[in-house]
Amino acid sequence: MKLKTTLLALAAVGVLAGVAGCAEKKPEKTRIAMVVKNLGNGFFDAAHTGADEAAKQLGDVEVIYTGPTTPSAEGQIEIINSLISQKVDAIVISANDPNALVPIAKKAMQRGIKVVSFDSGLAPEGRQMQLNPSNAQLIGEKQIQMAADEIGGAGEIAILSASAQATNQNIWIGVMKKVLEKPEYSKIKLVATVYGDDQSDKSYREAIGLLRSHPDLKAIIAPTTVGIVAASKAVADEHLVGKVYVTGLGLPSEMAGHVKSGAVKEFAIWNPIDLGYAATYAADQFVKGKVEAKPGASVSVGRLGSVTLDANREAALGPPFTYNADNVDKFAKLF
Ligand code: RAM
């Protein structure tokens, strides 16, 4: 009897060990979490589409799409903590702050999780690589040039940005300010920079504030897809179409109406689907040990070819594309 009990007990231990063994077994698919600045932003929805495309093509990748409801570093820190407990294989993040997220990103990397920032970057010590949509200089120059064209090269302009800590917008604003120092832009005066936090209502209120406190304003540059829509709506609601122009970075699908109303003559953007696809594809390359995170490394980005990491382990995709009344409808069907 005693022997039987012992055997049963041993068998139970064996079963339990087996169960525990199963629970610990790594899932067969590579799990890549895409952490965006915030949910509900059409730009990131398009990046998600690209991430899913990469996963489908790679075959053994599962994408976990996540982000806070409002674009804050705190919200992203909480999410990364939970992704670390879930033992995901990689985190692909558009960061709400270049530095505040570094400690948690480092913790993830110490646990073997690969971290790729895309769109809005993390400081180099917090990630394997940063994938920029395009060259920052080009993005900044393009926006000043579009604003200058819209207002005939002279007058007051203002910037309506995303959140005050956003890495990408702050880099572009830095470039724009430098470009404005060029002699050809000497008649253009930047009178204010405000932040709508990539929230439609706050961006709208900030745009209205700009229009009312600067009666001579000629253009608003919004280097954010959320801000540019809000600014266009504000200009229309204040009956200032034809007097104040809006430009910046927008999604053709969200901007077509505002181009037709005349609030916007021209705006730019890169392909957000490609950006999400490439970032996810690159993350998988790190997970599978196909590339090392070091300057000069060539990282495959699937159907888009490959990118080379610079001294800061950053790389960029193609130049931004310009949209106006002639082509906006065609691209509105895509993103
Ligand atoms: C918003 C976000 C994103 C930026 C685009 C242009 O959707 O701020 O980070 O790249 O605009």
From TrEMBL:
UniProt GO MF annotations: carbohydrate binding
Domain Periplasmic binding protein: 32-290
Residues making up the signal peptide according to the UniProt record: 1-22
Keywords: Signal
Pfam families (UniProt xref): Peripla_BP_4
Keyword Aminoacyl-tRNA synthetase belongs to the record: no
Superkingdom classification of source: Bacteria
Family: Belongs to the bacterial solute-binding protein 2 family.
Protein name stated in the entry: Rhamnose ABC transporter substrate-binding protein
